[in-house]
Amino acid sequence: MLKNKENRIMKIVIYVVCISLSILSILPFWIMIVNATRSTTEIQQHAISLIPSGYMMSNLKILLGKSFNPAVGFLNSLLISTGATALALYFSSLTAYAQVAYNWKWRNAFFSFIMVVMMIPAQVTMIGFYQMVYQIHMTNNLSMLILPAIASPTMVFFMRQYLLPTLSMEIVQSARIDGAGEFMIFNRIVLPIMKPAIATQAIFSFVASWNNLFTPLVLLTDQKRYTMPIMVSLLKGDIYKTEYGSVYLGLTLTVMPLIIVYLLLSKYIIAGVALGGVKG
Amino acid sequence: MKSKKPGYDRYAKYGYIFSIPFVVAFLLFSLYPTVYTAVIGFTDLKGLGMTSIHFLTDDIFRNFKTVLSSPSFQQAFSNTVVLWVSNFIPQILLALLLAAWFTDKRSKVKGQGGFKILLYMPNIITAATIAILFSGFFGYPMGPVNDLLVRFGFAEKPVELLRNKTVARGVVIFIQTWMWYGSTMITLISGILGLSPEIFESAEVDGANRVQTFFYITLPNIKTIMLFTLVTSLIGGLNMFDIPKLFQNGGPDNATLTTSLFIYNQAFSGSYMYNRAAAASMMMFLIIAVLSGMMFFVMRDRDEVEQRKQIKQQQKEYKMRQKSGKGDASC
Q1: DSSP-based three-state secondary structure for B55
Q2: pTM for this one?
Q3: Chain B: nearest CA to A238, how far in angstroms?
Q4: B49-62: string of b/e by CB count within 10 Å (b at 16+)?
Q5: What is the pLDDT of residues A100-121, one digit of tens each?
Q6: Which of B124, B142, B181, B209 is the best substitution to test chain A (most A C-beta atoms within 10 A)?
Q7: Contact A246, A59 (CB under 8 A)
Q8: How many domains, chain B?
Q9: What is the rounded distance in angstroms from the CA atom of residue B323 to the CA atom of residue B278?
Q10: In CATH, what number is assigned to the domain containing residue B242?
């Protein structure tokens, strides 16, 4: 009896904490979305409200009348994230396949090397990267944000961990007997086998690239090349100082695509996070 | 049977060929910038648009000394450590608590999937957006927080909250914790679920209660994952940039200035001191390299190391046997 009661209290505590934390996750975004529909006067009177108002269109007009251009930011971010993700996926799979399928002298040394450099963030080498890009006059060239993705040590690591137990060399051997070249075997047989890993890694790579602020902020000076996070940072500037409703709307516009995609793919994303932990 | 050396495989060359794109991109976009950054740290490179560099002749370590003795770098470094420590502790504690609840068979928390989705959500949203959103929340005179303070009588009139260093730091710490505990929680849960169920069953048979099971069974068994979380979080924390930059741009009075922000400000906003920024970068690089080296040592695949040892052992034995066999024959 006593144990049962204790259990029930415990359960109530658990649910109260979990529900409060869930509200804490939603509330800031809810306030943001609601304020995006309210006029600046309304916000000045009461900055917090849970009920939407009807000023979204006028907020939008003010927002778009100044330098904030969500469409440009969206397109640039889409281009960079898609390009970088595609390159990272393809070449990481290829590098991982080289690790798993072939027996070469430097294989283990190369893998150790990948593990060592995996943790080093791009930020600490940014000064040299900037100088290099500046000297070849490519600072506003989006390819400088895309091409480095070809070498993604973390992704190679995960792809290798996936491929190691999954790939059967017998399939590869029989394809060889059928006369397929090594490169074709990779493209036609190995890539399809890796689909689940590619899907998971695609999500994380895309989101990381989409949210990246540091590199674009350093490299891009041309407004037409701005990515979404840099566009967002414009909302902090003086031009929107008193236009509260518009600022909230601008933030909402940058968050909505992410929230929608997240809710659609959340199952895979959560599974992917879990996967990353087990074999970090 | 001929013992083949692994290097003589007919297909071995494809191992090299398929690794070429990675290696080329790595050399161009990672290694070269790293070396270049290191070199710039020893030169006089500063000023907008300057590209010609000269090594410092009077004192080759001058940039490093200037940075180390600069009060704002010292402040930035201590801020970075303080901000990381005070976000990591609540983050890991909360994540552990939730992970213990969600994996406990006796509690059977319903709706776990939904909770996981919601608690992880802040992690996926652009940090830049979140920083600006929170700086709006704490706005003066009319932000939602001030609105609440006045409405519920905590303050008579709006307060300039973000002028206060403790409040500004507190908000950055809160944002970091709020963005990351969900991710840490999921990592820990998957670690706990990966443990063999038998150890939990036997603990239950032995009459261990939930708290005992957690401290004596679960915690010791997820040590590696905890370490992984610790090191990745530390490396991330040492590079904290987006939130301090867009929340209060390091202010008020450098209270939220981090090393990454210091480096950025040195190089790209106003002063163009590339050499000092590079010196500061290299110091951070060294710290991170040591950390990830430790990580590599702990996390490397133990089974594989074991296997490799065994293979070597077998090869040795095989050779020994061959030798002794030959010896026998010659006798």
Answers
A1: strand
A2: 0.86
A3: 13
A4: eeeebeeeeeeeeb
A5: 999 988 999 999 888 888 878 8
A6: B124
A7: yes
A8: 1
A9: 58
A10: 1.10.3720.10
